[in-house]
Recover the amino acids of this structure.
């Protein structure tokens, strides 16, 4: 019985890891290319969740079908935000510090707008598969979490292939590694920044469509998510999408076991503790480069 419980917890942790990975990958991409610490990322995930929720509520549209729509809407929003807010000061030496304040303010604005429009009532999208499961012996696999994990990994894999094999993907990776050197080699770093930011915010929209049926949500929910996502990005290495994906699965599995043995309240605390320990012991994360002393 104990072994079955251990396997069940592992399955549930892995199933959630895919959704965490998709949410964190957009945040990691934006930081890696633009040095933007986007505290508003989870609030934009909430926007994607509301798009999926109302499409389902008003038109019965499956969140999986709404996902590309949410991705495109949020990507377009990312273009506008970049042009209006983030483009002007991109060369500033204190750009990252400035973006912390800018995105914090943006998160407050988004939360206020969502709260005004939809109130702080908890909502969840409820397609049939969201409450169904596959059974393998005594172990069950929730269909909603399984489908969301598969879709998340598919999107992340497509992003990885784009970054590795396309010419523009190479430009993004070059800019991530050394912005000044990439510009000297003829890379249009401003265009790279714009497209990368749009992709990162678009991924938030896609993640939101999946979040809408995996978790209950409300406008202020993003404050809980920001610490979780930052722990993934920091553990994986700031700017490393692969590291973020691995960190998502590692921490989601650990959190599942902690929740089982010590209670659900302690499950979320796992991410907070991980963030603190990583910053204290290995601030560069699993795949990040160790900062050099001047």
């Amino acid at each position: 019985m104990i072994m079955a419980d251990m396997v069940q917890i592992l399955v549930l942790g892995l199933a959630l890891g895919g959704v965490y990975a998709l949410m964190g990958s957009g945040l990691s991409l934006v930081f890696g290319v633009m040095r933007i610490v986007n505290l508003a990322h989870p609030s934009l995930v909430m926007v994607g969740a509301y798009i999926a929720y109302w499409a389902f509520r008003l038109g019965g549209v499956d969140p999986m079908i709404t996902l590309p729509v949410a991705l495109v809407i949020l990507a377009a929003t990312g273009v506008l935000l970049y042009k209006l807010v983030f483009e002007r000061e991109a060369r500033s030496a204190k750009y990252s510090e400035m973006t912390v304040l800018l995105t914090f303010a943006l998160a407050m604005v988004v939360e206020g707008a969502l709260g005004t429009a939809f109130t702080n009532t908890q909502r969840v999208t409820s397609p049939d598969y969201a409450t169904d499961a596959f059974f393998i012996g005594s172990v069950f696999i929730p269909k909603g979490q399984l489908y969301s994990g598969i879709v998340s990994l598919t999107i992340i894999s497509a992003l990885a292939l784009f970054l590795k094999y396309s010419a523009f993907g190479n430009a993004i990776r070059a800019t991530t590694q050394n912005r000044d050197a990439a510009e000297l080699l003829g890379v249009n770093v401003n265009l790279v920044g714009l497209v990368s930011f749009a992709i990162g915010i678009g991924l938030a929209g896609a993640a939101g469509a999946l979040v809408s049926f995996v978790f209950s949500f409300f406008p202020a929910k993003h404050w809980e998510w920001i610490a979780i996502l930052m722990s993934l990005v920091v553990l994986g290495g700031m700017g490393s999408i692969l590291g973020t994906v691995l960190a998502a699965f590692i921490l989601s599995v650990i959190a599942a076991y902690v929740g089982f043995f010590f209670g659900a309240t302690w499950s979320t605390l796992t991410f907070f503790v991980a963030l603190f320990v990583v910053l204290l012991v290995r601030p560069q994360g699993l795949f990040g480069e160790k900062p050099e002393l001047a």
The radius of gyration is 19 Å.
